[in-house]
Amino acid sequence: MTSVRQDAWTQDEDLLLAETVLHYIREGGTQLQAFEEVGRRLSRTAAACGFRWNSYVRKQYKEAIEIAKKQRKEKKKETVARGGTEGLISAADASQKRLTWSDVIAFLQTYEQAAVDYQRIVDENRALKKDMEQLQQMVTKLQAEKEVLQKKLATIQEDYNSLIGIMERARKMVVLEEDEHAKKVKFQLERNGHLEKIEK
What we know:
The chain has 200 residues and is mostly helical. 74% of the residues lie in helices and 5% in strands. A hairpin with a 5-residue loop joins strand 1 (185-189) and strand 2 (195-199). The termini are far apart. Residues 1-5 and 85-95 have low confidence and may be disordered.
């Protein structure tokens, strides 16, 4: 009597694994949930089911997986179009938790606060741009005034240098005149002992 290995998979078990995983994909569930269900039904671990799916079975059902994903997308669109809350289900959520009205309200409040914060940032940005433009205008004005003052300063410097030159020439002329005048004047001693100026 041949003994079957405990971890050997039959064709029926592979089929059950494939059908269950494809069902969960279509319904927006996760593959982990599918592995857990198959494991319960076949008395195997979820890890063993996952390994079998990824190493062998998945390759045989590539087209079926794509079809199941499209069906999931279409089903989600239909649910949202009907306005039901099922369209808000997160397929990645392992617990398949559905959004409640409290979740929706909390989201909307957060969104509203984010909108207020965004508007505040936009207003602050606009005000900062306005301030920057005013400061730029002030800088341009001050630069123009600086150029005018520099020109005036250069003119004053030239005038000052000219004035110093004139004063220096005038001083030299006075010294020359005094020297010439001193040469023309002679002094003599009077009988009483005082000096008397004698013009030449």
